[in-house]
Amino acid sequence: MSTVREPLPVVLVGARGHGGHHLANIARLQRRGLVRLAGVCDVRPLGPQELDGFPGAEQSPDLDSLLASTGARIAVVCTPIQTHTDLALVAARRGAHLLLEKPPAPSYAEFRRMADGVAAAGAACQIGFQALGSHALPAIRSLLDDGAIGDVRGIGAAGAWVRDEAYFRRSPWAGRRRLDGVDVVDGVLTNPLAHAVSTALALAGSTRAEDVARVETELFRANAVESDDTSCVRVTTARGGRVTVAATLCAKAAAEPYVMVHGTRGRITFWYKQDQVLLQRTGHGPEESVHGRTDLLENLVRHLTEGAALLAPPEVCGAFMRVVEAVRTAPDPVELPPSAWHFAQDGGAPRRVVPGVDALVAAGATSLRLYSELGAPWARPAEVAAS
Q1: Which CATH number do you get for residue 12?
Q2: Among residues 115, 247, 267, 349, which one has the fewest Cβ atoms lying within 10 Å of its Cβ?
Q3: Does residue 297 sit within a domain?
Q4: How far apart are CA 311 and CA 303, in angstroms?
Q5: Which residues contact 285 (CB under 8 A, 6 or more apart)?
Q6: Residue 148: phi, psi to the nearest 5?
Q7: How far is residue 329 CA from its own chain's centroid?
Q8: Are residues 268 and 342 in the same domain?
Q9: Are 120 and 230 in the same domain?
Q10: Distance in angstroms (rounded) separating the CA atoms of residues 269 and 96
C-alpha cells in the first residue's frame, strides 16, 4: 500500500532578485505535490500577482515569527551574503531544514559558525551550488577512473561574463568587500562565478577544507567598486594537484563558463550550466554528451522524505570556503588603470571591457597559469597573494 505524503511547507527568505528563481522553482515543485509555499520573508512584501498560485502563503519580515506561525519544514535562504549565517541559525533552531544560497558565508569563520550551528540543531543543509546536482559529474568521474584521458595533470576553469555598471548598483552590498565593517566579499570568484570554483574543486576530488594546501590569488577591478571583477586563483590540493580558475565580468562578449580536466592523453571539457561534456583523447574522435540534473531543493525534499544523500551539504563546500577566505584576506583588488579598459561600444547599457581578457581567461584554464604568468600587461608577479 503506497503512502501519500503531504507537501512539505517551505518558507522563502529573500524573494526579490535571484529569489525569483527560487520562487519559480518552488511553484514547479508545488505543482508536483512535493512542497507548498507556506510563507515569504522579505522586507518588501510580494504583491498579489507575484503570489498568484500560492494560496494561503503568509508574509513577514521576521523569519523567526514566520517559521513559528507556518511550521515550515524547509527555509530557502536567498539574501545578502553577510546575512546567511544568522538567518540559517534562526531557521535551524526553529526546526527548519535549509537550502542556503551560495556563497554560504563571507568568511571561513562565519561558514564554520553556520555549519556547526545547523548541525548542532539537527537540521539538514544544502548549499545552492546547482552544478553539483549535474549528472555529468559522476559521468566525468567514471571516465577519469577508467583512465579515459590518462593521468590527470590539472584542472582549469574559465568564466568570461559581461556585467554593466547597474549590476554593481543593484543593492547596497553589491561589489563590496565589506559593508559597515562587516565582510561581504562579493567578488567575481566568490559570487557570480563561484560555481566555476566549486565545480572545478569537485572534479579534482578536493571539496573539503583539509583538501586545500595552498591558494594563490590575483584580484583586479576595472569597475569603480571595492571587490574584484577580473581575477584568477590557483589552488594546490593536499595531494599535489592544481586547480586554476580565471574569471571576469569585463569580457568583450559573454561566453558559457566551463571546467577543463587535463590528462596525459586528452582532456574533458564540462560546460556546467548546460550539463554538456566534450571528451577529447588520443586516438579517438571527439565525443559529446549532455546529461540531466537533479534540482537541489528536490534533492533536499527527497533527503527528508526518503533518506536520499544530499548533493551539496556544507562539508563538501569547505574547500570553496578556503578560496573565499583567501580572497577575503588578500590585499584589496588592484585598480586597473584607465588605459586597461574601455566602455563597450555596442549600444547597450554602460559596461567596462578589458581588451584581451576573454583570451586570457581561456588561456588560464588551458595552461593552469595565472594572469601575471600569462603576461597580462596590467598583472605583475608582485601582485600574487598566497595563503
Answers
A1: 3.40.50.720
A2: 349
A3: no
A4: 10
A5: none
A6: -60, -35
A7: 19
A8: yes
A9: no
A10: 38
Phi and psi angles of residue 184, each rounded to the nearest 5 degrees, phi first? -120, -50
Q: What's the angle, vertex CA 367, arms to CA 362 and CA 372, rounded to 5?
A: 80
Query: Is 217 inside a domain boundary?
Result: yes
Q: Looking at residue 385, what is its pLDDT?
A: 76
pLDDT of residue 1: 39
Residues of the chain predicted below pLDDT 50: 1-2
pLDDT for position 150 = 98
Judged by phi (left if over 0) then psi (alpha if -120 to 50, else beta), residue 171 lies in beta
With beta carbons less than 8 A apart as the criterion, state whether 103 and 81 touch.
Answer: yes
| CB-CB neighbours of 89 under 10 Å | 19
Residue 220's pLDDT is: 98
Give the pLDDT score at 4.
Answer: 63
Q: Can you point out the beta strands (E) in 172-275?
A: 178-179, 182-183, 212-221, 230-237, 242-248, 258-263, 266-271
pLDDT of residue 229: 98
- 0.85 exceeded by the pTM? yes
Element (H, E) at 41: strand 35-41
Residue 2 has a pLDDT of: 47
Are 174 and 168 within 8 A, CB to CB?
Answer: yes
φ, ψ dihedrals at 375, nearest 5°:
85, 20
Q: Pick from 4, 17, 268, 62: which is nearest to 167 by CA?
A: 17
> From the centroid of its chain, how far is CA 291?
20
Q: Helices in the chain by DSSP H: which ranges? A: 19-31, 63-70, 84-93, 108-120, 136-145, 194-203, 296-306, 318-329, 357-367
Angle in degrees, CA 21, 321, 262, rounded to 5: 90
pLDDT score of 345: 84
Amino acid found at 313: P
In the chain, what is the greatest distance between 2 CA atoms, to the nearest angstrom?
Answer: 72
Q: Quick one: pLDDT at residue 300?
A: 98
In angstroms, the CA 31 to CA 36 distance is: 9
Q: Nearest to residue 269, comparing CAs of 157, 130, 145, 146? A: 157
Residue 386 confidence (pLDDT): 80
Q: Dig out the grid coordinates for 174 from the structure.
A: 553589491
For residue 172, the one-letter residue type is P
Domain final position from 130, 148, 181: 130
